[in-house]
User: What shape does this take?
Amino acid sequence: MDKILLGHGSGGSMMHALIAEHFAPAFQLETLMDAAVVENLNPGRIAVTTDSYVVSPLFFPGGNIGELAVNGTVNDLAMVGARPLYLTAGFIIEEGFPFDDLRRIVSSMAEASEKAGVKIIAGDTKVVDKGKGDGIFINTAGVGVVPDGVQLSASRIQAGDKIIISGRIGNHGVAVMAERNGLRFEPPVLSDTAPLNSLVELMLESADGIRVMRDPTRGGVATVLKEFAVESGLCMIVEKWLIPVASGVRGACDLLGIDPLYVANEGILLAVVRPDVAEYLVKVMKRHPLGEHSAVIGQVEESPAETVLLTTEIGGRRVLEMLQGEQLPRIC
Amino acid sequence: MDKILLGHGSGGSMMHALIAEHFAPAFQLETLMDAAVVENLNPGRIAVTTDSYVVSPLFFPGGNIGELAVNGTVNDLAMVGARPLYLTAGFIIEEGFPFDDLRRIVSSMAEASEKAGVKIIAGDTKVVDKGKGDGIFINTAGVGVVPDGVQLSASRIQAGDKIIISGRIGNHGVAVMAERNGLRFEPPVLSDTAPLNSLVELMLESADGIRVMRDPTRGGVATVLKEFAVESGLCMIVEKWLIPVASGVRGACDLLGIDPLYVANEGILLAVVRPDVAEYLVKVMKRHPLGEHSAVIGQVEESPAETVLLTTEIGGRRVLEMLQGEQLPRIC
Assistant: This one.
């Protein structure tokens, strides 16, 4: 049997076999019941999040949908300062999907979970008729614990704060777009998909004064900055030449006619921090493998309210809005 | 704008508007951040579950995909004895999906959450190109608290235990199948979709000695009984004439050539309980609107191991296996 059949989503014997032979060993599931019970979460506060992944193609330079589904949800938890602990995984598989691809995806998810230090504890499999899906869609939901005293929110941003980015932008979107269009760059542009929780933990341990963090996925850096501006009522001013972009990504964006500020990322974060800790934080972040290219890219001002301004090399300023319409569908 | 466009899944301004205008008011979301932080869960142990819903058609007699997505996940939590508290909602919408249908579904989800006493606290929206999905798929994940002392597991089943069912079987599957095939029954067969948590709470408060509970959704009653048999290593013997089936469902199943024991349910549960509390529990359950048709339907014996036996009216016995292959795809 090398393809997924409708019976694999039946709830009956074929689904039991699929779970027992593929999902349970990969994720070291302790129970095959519909809900998992975990002991002693020891909270305080818990963080809960969900994301569905519909990226096309499923495999792209630097990653695949499985890895993305783990890292993306880990990152959503990390962005509120939570320590990610548990994930659930919901699969919607199109009839006829190759078993080999499922195996590769599931094993990527297991590896990514291990790397991020989270455990997949519950799952679900549905199979839809051929032509009613697109290979595989994966939903992951995540649960984490927010340490005492951690309170991250754009409403805490103040004028004078500094804006930090943790790495080079645009890699994920360009990698997916290249794969979709059969473009090959030399060297290849790889997705930056990665779990940010250890970087976030390091940042939170190293300094008070982190107001908010967010990972610029769909909509890119510009959209997150606009969210910060709207939610704080303040103005985000960023300097274009301080925003790190790998030369391959810059070239690809020029070629494709897109702005890297609107391209999705899957392994970097934006943080707004108190001005006195900004340089120190960047120094700390640079010691982390995912923070090597960290930089202060701008600052917060009182006005114009709810606005993002981009300062260009030649002294011009332009207003950045959120992504309008859709630049690149199904990027994650 | 009356249809969903790819831009509604962009992460940019259209998606923000969709969330702000539709999801946030319906679910009374307190934050539009990717992860929600909830205070003071006050555990012990938490239960976590997930399910994706791909039912076709989206609207069927007695319910729709939205209501189903809330109740199904509430029930998965309730089945491990958890008090359901929080849900996440992940939408995968096909480009061109009517806004009116989305509104109806979202408002059903809000109503169902209210009724079940849970709160939808985080969500995600993806839009896939026309022809790459099927209207809408919904994933819900759920978090609940398991009260101290509650420990439900099929491994706790013992020979001599009684098997209880909480209601009449087969309604959901027959309702969906009828709608799909354009059949009209008079009176119509309605889906039994309902949140079982208040019934479960009543049962747990009323008696010790509940070994395990499970809701017979995909795969039906026969599949759950087989799971109980395999997980406990014991034999489940049920009497066919004690299993409640509404006459409309029985007639429809005869007509369609299917066995109600393998048809999906969305608002009933099977429980295995200590023999001395069985009759009392059924009496208590009958007082609950969802337990009106509760009945003891059989018992547990030592052997044959890992086997389900169905005793028929004329004294015969037949072995029930799990659902083989797929009887009715996309039932939930």
Q: What stands out?
A: The helical segments of chain B are 13-27, 65-79, 99-116, 171-180, 197-206, 220-232, 247-256, 275-286.
